[in-house]
Design goal:
about 120 residues; mainly alpha; 2 helices; about 90% helix; disordered N terminus
Length: about 120
């Protein structure tokens, strides 16, 4: 056997050994992950009732908020959810404009009052 053949044989053996170690590590990690997944599944089953109750509470809270929104937005009680949200956005914008107008009027009247006091009226 020439030196090249010995070198190639040694390299092949080293690569094979390295591959076995990598494969063993992967299998070990897979087993650990599988065990962790099984524990997680047990936790979910054990706490499934709690999660379902929490989800039901969340749904009820959302429903209460939607009902409140339907009462607040003009005509909201007859609207579906998508349309209700669109109308809510428009209503908020309308309220903002009204608030701005009211602030401008209040400022205008305050200015008039100051002018009256200046001239003694």
């Amino acid at each position: 056997m020439g030196s090249n053949a010995v070198h190639e044989s040694h390299t092949a053996t080293a690569n094979s050994s390295s591959s076995r170690r990598i494969k063993a590590r992967r299998e070990s990690q897979c087993m650990k992950n599988s065990a962790a997944s099984q524990e997680s599944a047990k936790d979910v089953k054990a706490h499934g009732g709690e999660e379902e109750a929490a989800a039901a509470d969340d749904r009820e809270e959302v429903e209460r908020k939607i009902e409140a929104l339907q009462r607040i937005v003009p005509g909201g009680e007859s609207l579906g959810m998508d349309k209700l949200f669109e109308e809510t956005a428009g209503y908020i914008m309308t309220l903002q404009v009204q608030l701005k107008a009211m602030k401008a009027l209040a400022s205008f009247f305050e200015g008039l009052e100051k002018e009256k006091k200046k001239f003694g009226a």
